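Kindly inspect what follows.
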Amino acid sequence: ISDTGYDIWELFESQSAFPSTVWLNHEMQVYDQMNNAGSWSIGSRIDQMLEDCGSLCEGDGGCTTAPGDVNEDETLNIQDLITMVNHILGSSLVVDCALEAADMNVDGVVNIQDLISLVNAILGSARSADINGQAKIEYVTSGQDLIIRVNSNYDLEHGVDIAGIQLSIINDMPLEIQLKDNSHVNEKSSFIGGINRYLAYSMFNEPFDGRSTEILIKSGGNLSMNDIQVIIADINGDAIYLSHSQSGQNPQTGPYSFELKGLYPNPFNPSTQVSFSLPVESHVELAAYDLRGHKVAMIFEGAQTVGTHSYTWNASSLPSGVYYIRLQAGDMVTSQKALLIK
C-alpha cells in the first residue's frame, strides 16, 4: 500500500476518520468497519466472511496423499516414478500435496534418495539394515573432459552398493554426461536455468557394478569440483557420505592426510567435538549444514597449520535432526553426518 497523502482515508472507505476495527476479506478488500466493536460483533463478522468465502476458505486438514503417490491417483506405479524424475530434473515441478508425497524421507528435499525409496515402494522391497556407507569422489581432468570417479569399494567396513547418483552442475551451456558401463542403469538429464541436472538409477533398484563407477562430462575439463553437487544413495535410499578430491590437488607430504577424523560424541546433545587433519598449511572452513544445504553454523574459519586440530560445535540453538559437518581447505572438501538428539 502506498500513502499518497490524504488518499489514505480512502483505504478504509471511512471518509475522514479511522475506524477502530476493520475486517479484510480473503481478497484483502474491506468487508466491514466499526467503532468500539464487541466480541459478539467481531465473531459475527468473521463467521459471515467465512460463509461468503465458501470453499476457498475451507481447511483440508492437511495432505492425505500417500507417500510416493506423486501424481495423486492413489496408486504407486511407473507414472509416479516418471513424475518424480521430472521434478528432480526441474522440467515439471510438483507442488502442495504432491510435493509432500514426493519427499518420502521427509527431509524437506526431493532428490535421488526419494527416488530410490519410491522404486523400493513400487517393488514392495523391504528396507535392508542401515549401512552408513562411505565413498570417495575424485575429479580428474582428461583433455577437455572431466571424469568423476566414484569408489565405495576402498573400505571393507563402510563399502556399500551404489543405487543412484544425482549431479547438479553449474555451467552456462548444456553438457553431455555419460555413465561408464552399467548398462542396466537408467540415465536422465536436463539443462534449465544454467544448471545441468543428471540422474542415474535402476528401475529395479539393481546396484551399480562393483561398488564403483566413472562418469564422463564431455567438455567439462574447465569445471572445478566446487561447481558440482553430488548426491549418492544406497539401496535403502539413504545418503552415502562422500569425501571429495580433485586430481593433483590433494597433496600429502608427511604423516598427515586431508581428513575429517570424526565427531565425538555422535549422536550428541548439544555439543560435539570435531577433529580433522591437514597435510599442508591451508585456509580452512569448517561448517555445519542442514539437510536442505543451508549453512547453520561456522565452526571455524581461518588459516590452519599442518597436523590434527579439534573444535567444539555447540548446537544448543538448533532443533534435533541430521546435520552435515563440511571441511574445506582450498579445493579439498569432505563431510560427515552429525545427529543432534535433544
